[in-house]
């Protein structure tokens, strides 16, 4: 009997895992179906702004080439213009609506485009649109001296000194420092510069504990978390079916940037996995203000280290196991 059980137990366990995986896949599919931007409802300000940044970022790239094709960019220019007209007709403008208008103006003012009839037509219509961006968009001169400001004398000191801390000294990290870390992390690249991130922050102990209740990897240390972040991405930002996993990629990028930004400010962090079941994801959404279109990527405990700390050694695999030469087959 024991021999039979040892043979069928892996099959039962594997079948249960496959069922859970399928359940999770279907949950993700339904969320992409209901909340993804694939319908392209451009009357919705959030959807339109994600859509607009895709188009005007194409113009930014065209403006940034030192050797640009003088006839390039018009397809994106027409897309931007169409979305600006929608924003103007509704009378509700987002950040990227305003940025898009400025970028398109710069594109139309290029010498090869300035005197074209379609440029004059677009410019005339845009002059009647009563919204402007106060920031600078388009392209900028970026000398090597600016690039070299980011070079660390010994990058190993920075990267190898970061560990995940699960115990903190109890001092709450102020909003000022959390905000600064998020601003630094927002230099993270994103697909077509859509920046589909949203980060939730709290230092309220009751809120922290209620949120952590649904994350199964923080016991027993989560009870002492001074601050908690929940990193999410917005499904409205993704339009093509091929982008059905892109929100996870975007979320992973911003999450790591946040941890390094915090580390650069002397603040410790511990990422908390959110590979949860649909049931647990729904339960979390009942107690915190996360919108249905926002995908939870991870939770993150944040705080200051003690004078002396103990951490997992977390050694890394040999380089030859993770790095190979790319070759044709």
UniProtKB/TrEMBL annotation:
Signal peptide: none annotated. SUPFAM superfamilies: FMN-dependent nitroreductase-like. InterPro entries: Nitroreductase, Nitroreductase-like. Keywords: Flavoprotein, FMN, Oxidoreductase. Gene3D superfamilies: NADH Oxidase (3.40.109.10). Its cofactor is FMN. Residues 161-211, 214-304 form the Nitroreductase domain. This is Nitroreductase family protein. It comes from Croceitalea rosinachiae.
């Amino acid at each position: 009997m024991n021999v039979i059980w040892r043979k069928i137990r892996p099959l039962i366990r594997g079948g249960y895992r496959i069922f859970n995986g399928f359940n999770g896949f279907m949950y993700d599919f339904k969320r992409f179906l209901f909340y993804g931007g694939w319908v392209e409802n451009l009357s919705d300000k959030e959807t339109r702004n994600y859509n607009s940044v895709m188009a005007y970022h194409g113009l930014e790239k065209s403006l940034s080439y030192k050797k640009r094709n003088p006839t390039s960019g018009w397809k994106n220019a027409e897309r931007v213009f169409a979305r600006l007209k929608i924003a103007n007709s509704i009378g509700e403008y987002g950040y990227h609506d305003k940025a898009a208008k400025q970028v398109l103006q710069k594109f139309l003012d290029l010498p090869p485009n300035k005197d074209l009839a379609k440029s004059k037509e677009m410019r005339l219509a845009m002059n009647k649109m009563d919204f402007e961006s106060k920031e600078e968009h388009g392209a900028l001169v970026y000398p090597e001296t600016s690039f070299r400001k980011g070079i660390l004398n010994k990058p190993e000191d920075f990267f190898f000194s970061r560990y995940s801390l699960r115990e903190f000294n109890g001092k709450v990290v102020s909003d000022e420092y959390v905000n600064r870390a998020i601003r630094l992390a927002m230099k993270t690249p994103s697909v077509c510069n859509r920046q589909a991130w949203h980060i939730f922050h709290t230092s309220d102990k009751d809120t922290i504990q209620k949120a952590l209740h649904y994350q199964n990897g923080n016991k027993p240390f989560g009870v002492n978390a001074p601050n908690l972040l929940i990193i999410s991405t917005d499904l409205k930002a993704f339009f093509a079916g091929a982008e059905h996993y892109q929100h996870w990629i975007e979320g992973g990028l911003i999450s790591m940037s946040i941890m390094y930004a915090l580390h650069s400010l002397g603040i410790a962090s511990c990422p908390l996995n959110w590979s949860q079941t649909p049931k647990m994801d729904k339960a979390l959404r009942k107690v915190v203000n996360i919108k249905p279109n926002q995908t939870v990527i991870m939770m993150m405990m944040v705080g200051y280290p003690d004078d002396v700390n103990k951490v997992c050694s977390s050694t890394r695999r040999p380089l030859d196991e993770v790095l190979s030469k790319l070759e044709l087959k």
